[in-house]
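Batch manifest line 340
LIGAND: iron/sulfur cluster
JOB: complex structure
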Amino acid sequence: MEQIISRCGNICSECPWSMFVRKKIAKEDWEEYSQQIKTYTGYKPVKFEWEGCVGCHTPNDELPSHPFFNFLKKCRTRKCGQYNEIPNCAYCGRFPCANTVASDKFTKEKVSEKLGKEVSDEEYERYIKMFDSMTNLNDIRSRLKDTQIKNPKLVTHKREIPELMGTFKNASFKFVYDVLLAIANSNLGIKGIDTVSGLELYKEREEFFWRFLWLIGIFGNVNKHELNLDSGTLYDNRKPISLPNNEEGWNIIFDILSKFGIDTELEIKTDKLYTPGGYMRAKIPKTNEPAYLLKMKTDPKLQKYPFFKGLNEMLLELQKNSEKRAFSNFKKLNFTSILE
Ligand code: SF4
Ligand code: SF4
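JOB STATUS: finished
ARTIFACT:
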């Protein structure tokens, strides 16, 4: 069978989630094969009986209706490859861009280091290579001619921010508003926002940020220039966003906040912070206790007024005046209901 490479460089035709592999491996060998995949990658494939992924080159209207395919529909690298009409990122003039989901987590060296033993060529080929996406893409790229490489078609994005039709009732609200405006007008740490993958990542991050700012403003415990918020409260009120899966994910958010004068650190409350599958917990297992605490403080340039207190008062007032529309108004930076 001809090798099928996903937009981000995985080998679909050898992927344990695919329908292709389900045709090659007998049902009675599936459990052992799945266990080996879990040993080398940390992920256990979906059971043999499932129909299997049809691969990310399948157009949206031909994807089966199973919820699994929602992740393919949302994949920013798939959308970017489709928009640019290229088979995968190796054919792109921006490769390797900062926003591709291709990863270097599954190189032979990194998996050997993680397992504490040298992975053989045979083990790598059978259980790992299909996910060694960056290596696979680099390999494809090395065989391409310059004429086969295309620059991505650029996209533009402008956030619409309503004009202030009035004044805030105090200087502290205006101070908070200016910080929110600076955040809204930034790229939220995304490089390459002019490509489909960059813009998709920006939209995801934007969704996260405004919900996150709302949660710290409404639920945070404020003490002058400091604010604490526990992961349990964040988790219970997070929807429609998901919390970062690991500390690395949080650090990306903290780096962005620090550009606006907010320094944050995590205080871990448990030695069981991660699930066996490698996801960060919000609550300590079998309890309702938070697994970590977000500790935030404003740096001196953001201390002209108590920022967190101002944010809290502003959002409570917005809630009172805009009721059900309060969060959606906040996201749009529409503060009309609290202006004088
Ligand atoms: S899960 Fe990803 S790599 Fe696997 S078959 Fe589907 S698109 Fe390809
Ligand atoms: S811009 Fe990035 S994600 Fe999009 S095709 Fe190019 S390398 Fe891939």
